[in-house]
Amino acid sequence: MNRFLTLAIESSCDETAAAVLDGGRRVLSNVISSQVPIHEAYGGVVPEIASRKHLENVNPVVRKALKDAGVTWDDIDLIGVTYGPGLIGALVIGVAAAKGYSLARGIPMVGVNHMYGHVASNLITYPDLEPPFLCLVVSGGHTNIVLMEDYNRCRVLGGTRDDAVGEAYDKVARVIGLGYPGGPKIDKLARSGDPDKIHFKRVYLEKDSFDFSFSGIKTQVMNYVNSEKQAGREINAADVAAGFQEAVVEVLVNKSVEAVNQLFEEKNGGNSEVSKRRLVVAGGVAANSRLREALTDACKREEIELFLPELGLCTDNAAMIGSAAYYKYREEGPDDLTLDAYADLEF
Description:
five-stranded mixed β-sheet, 18% strand, globular, 10 helices
């Protein structure tokens, strides 16, 4: 059986990652070198430090990915690399490495939008999943509801107007003294808190809007913590975390379900783009236990088929980039050596 092997590189933030895939869905290796312990001391990712660590790690990580997959450079058919969005210095390291490998080895290269990579994590988890489908993308820098019309084409139905959901988690974590990374720490602490003890207002914006706004709830948490401190009252951080998380999750779930319902109604009225009631979830916040639980309950109630990526593919990794690269190359062919990195690359 003929194989088509993709070597993928991901360096958009603080994870240096490389993977080898056979086709678009079979992962042969998936190596990640995390910088979380380094940046934890600073309360967040320091771009300059991240770039330097990527420079140190990219070649060893690529070598390990090839070794773990049991292949050599002679077996590789394609190189895929994240070229945005993300930290510009970090992206440049990955793109430069991919260009060097491509030129030295004569292997075609393709740049991948990091957000398409997150969506593609579900293609690995669910081998039979095919577009079109509706996708909720939730990460540190993005909160979007998109209609994936094809592997390489989407229509953005809604996005955040201020803070992304992962960004809001990090900021609230700092307010209640949890530090970085905020998402996993709030998720863990919230399990021991009462989500009904402290009520934070849910923000839905205009009727029928699929946009999000999370800066307000961050401000609500800050005001609550400050007022309690000024009054000399003890703050139950677990209850704050649980109340915050419940407010955020409720908005994410309700808007996602409404988007599926609305698109399916449009289909029945003549929109051929959506033929099934399906919701796909992607991004680092897709690993959040309360979000997964609430989405599972809501989709079961609304008879929506739910697709959640396996936990190891939620956060930044190169396997998802390799999957997206395969489908982009198949449709659009390779990029040339003028490929550049873009910090603010749009979906």
